[in-house]
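Lab channel / #folding
Pinned by the channel admin:
"Please post every new chain as: sequence first, then the structure tokens as a reply. Keep commentary short and put observations after the output so the thread stays searchable."

First post following the new format, from NK:
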Amino acid sequence: MNFRLPQAACPVILDDVRGAQKMLAGVARMTPMEGSRHLSRLVGSPVHLKCENLQRTGSFKLRGAYVRISCLTPEERAAGVVAASAGNHAQGVALASSLLGVRSTVFMPVGAPLPKVAATREYGADVRLVGQVVDETLEQAQEYARETGAVFIHPFDHPDIIAGQGTLGLEILEQCPEVRTILVGMGGGGLAAGIAVAVKALRPDVKVIGVQAEGAAAYPPSLAAGRPVTVRSPATMADGIKVGRPGDVPFKIIGDLVDEVRTVSEDALSSALLLCLERAKLVVEPAGASTVAALLSEPDAFDGPVVALLSGGNVDPLLMQRILRHGMAAAGRYLSLKLRLTDRPGALAALLGTLSAADANVLDVSHVRTDPRLGLTEAEVELQLETKGPEHCEQVAAELRAAGYTVLDG
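Reply from TO:
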């Protein structure tokens, strides 16, 4: 059976979201909500993590994609669908299309992570690698739609997509009826808009707060200008919310219903991802961890109980490795040191013994003897150390100085 979500003065209303929820029955999982003792202590009130990273395809994108494709006419379905994405939307469209028996073509950038490309193919899409950035890929997908008649499935700028994503708002209210603040990561705005529609219709007292990466924050200037404004060359590790311009449809909803839009730094994003992994035992991508980053950045700013939405968990293993190192450095758990010592047998071993006694784990050592800056009997050592936090970093440096070493920088 085909559905068509009704339109109103507001492009999406509560009945649209409830209709989407019926469509998604048996398709999208009601993902779990986990309490976080660590974040609750930090914030001073209960904090719950809505684990949409455990959704089918690893993100919320299946919800909107399935609803959008369900609403197509038989003629539109016969023409197939096309999408452009570096990952999450690609997988959502691929699986939704397969479940509905619709042919799908997905354009992805040439540099898209191989696990995401493989997953999109496994879900049944014809994957085409085109362009170096998503904007180039998007142009190719739209050109393909014009040439073939395939229906272009936008990742956020359509009422049906917004209604599908809004089903998360209904789940959050059901799972945590006492909630007072909901934090949502924002790129183009489809997810935040959908959640705001559902939540504000049923619980107008609940605050809905959007979170953007500082390097890709198009909403603050757009809301200030009263119209969507493009951010040139958005840059952030959180590729899931790296969108240069708000969508026209979600922009109006967010302007009317979302209480606040906050931004978070790259350091906060990597620290949040590390916290999710270590404390909650959850693999979360940077965009999905943006809500936790907001809590870490200003824990006193939110009325509790708080629900932080973890929107996705699709992170490339190589990127994860780099982000974890960045997160550990931001948390003061890496220490870089450069020092000089007398170039004699056993000097390096003695230095390593001092570090062992200080309980610092040596990750990398560079031992230089031939630099013209050095004296005839000098050697310079650069160290990368794993420590237990900022206080331990200070303790290690102090113990090296107490042992007679001159620390040049750190």
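NK: The first strand starts at residue 33 and ends at 35.
TO: also worth noting, DSSP finds 16 helices and 14 strands in the chain.
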